[in-house]
Amino acid sequence: MKLPMRKSPRANDPEKKESGPYFLTWLPMFLDYLAVEKGLAKNSLSAYQTDLRHFGHWLGDQKRELDAVQRIDIVRYFQALRSAGISARSVARALAAIRGMFRFLVAERHLKHDPTENLENPKLWTTLPKSMQPEEVDALLRAPDRTTPEGLRDGAMLELLYATGLRVSELIHVKIDDLVMDAGFLRTIGKGSKERIVPFGDSARDAIIVYVERGRPRFDKHADPYLFLSSRGRPMSRQAFWMKITKYARQAGIAGHISPHVLRHSFATHLLENGADLRSVQMMLGHSDISTTQIYTHVSRARLQKMYDQFHPRA
Predict the structure, then answer these.
(1) CA 305 to CA 148: how far, in whole Å?
(2) Position 2 confidence tier, pLDDT thresholds 50, 70, 90
């Protein structure tokens, strides 16, 4: 039996109508500029037209007008291209076309802002990591056998990872002295040697307390300052924890590949879905640029629709 293939956002659809300001005004205006004033060759002009038509169809699917496009919309479009298997080289060509059109329309005072300004290069626009459903996270956190020292340690690591959104490299380097248990927060050193404060909740705190009291003494052979120790009494390695989270995901019956970064992504996604503001999530994740955090808002549309249906009197 043939499986249905995922449709590329660049796929031609002969039934799609090319109407509205984008196709009737902005695109022809820019193409005329390229042909007449820039003197672009026929093949180059055709390539621009193809890339910009695909972009226009995607905007139509998103019900997005050109003058309302934001930076995050551009990023999502290129993520969709990469997810559909479009090469990085083709994505870079599409960026050049879209950036050129926005620059032209802003320079001609048809648009007020250019959402492609200072946009990073296409190699960063990879497929978004998977985000787990809350019930999948619950199943994963229940997987370790907490009647054993190993299970207490692994359960505490999973709880703290989901509670804080730490990078795995940050998680394995948490020291006991980094924790402020009464207040429910920890200090961590992230990228660029920047220190940040990250809160955690009761579930993670309880798991850590039980692990420190009943599990960690079994591993503490060298008076090591790190919180999470291996059976040899040394700090847990990234590879070892990666293997453990994969094992527990399998035990929990979770389909697909689950990694520490998937839990970090789930942490951010679930916070935003439940009303957290973007700046707070940025601080907790340790992102220096909020545009990086904005990638995690890809699920917010469903939440907004749900809120609208729930609260708007005419929904």
Answers:
(1) 45
(2) very low
Domain spans, the chain: 20-124, 134-306
How far CA 25 is from CA of 85, 153, 267, in Å, comes to: 31, 62, 43
DSSP annotation of 233 = S
Which among 175, 218, 261, 303 is annotated as catalytic?
261
Q: Which of 10, 57, 264, 270 is catalytic?
A: 264
Cα separation, 166 vs 262, whole angstroms: 11
Catalytic residue among 167, 205, 244, 265: 167
Structure-model confidence comparison of residues 291 and 63, the more confident one: 63
What CATH number should be reported for the domain whose range is 20-124? 1.10.150.130
Question: In this predicted model, what pLDDT tens digit does every residue of 170-183 receive, in sequence order?
Answer: 999 999 999 999 99
pTM equals 0.59
Residue 173 annotated among the catalytic residues of the structure: no
Q: How far apart are CA 61 and CA 51, in angstroms?
A: 16
Residue 3 pLDDT exceeds 50: no
Distance of CA 190 to the CA centre of its chain: 18
Average pLDDT (62-73) is 90
What is the rounded CA–CA span in Å between residue 101 and residue 130?
33
Question: CA torsion 247→248→249→252, rounded to 10°?
Answer: 130
- Catalytic pick among 191, 222, 238, 306: 191
Q: 134-306: which CATH architecture?
A: Orthogonal Bundle (1.10)
Is 264 noted as a catalytic residue in this protein? yes
Q: Is 296 a catalytic residue?
A: yes
| Catalytic hit among 22, 77, 162, 296 | 296
Q: For all residues of the chain together, what is the average pLDDT?
A: 85
Active site residue 279: no
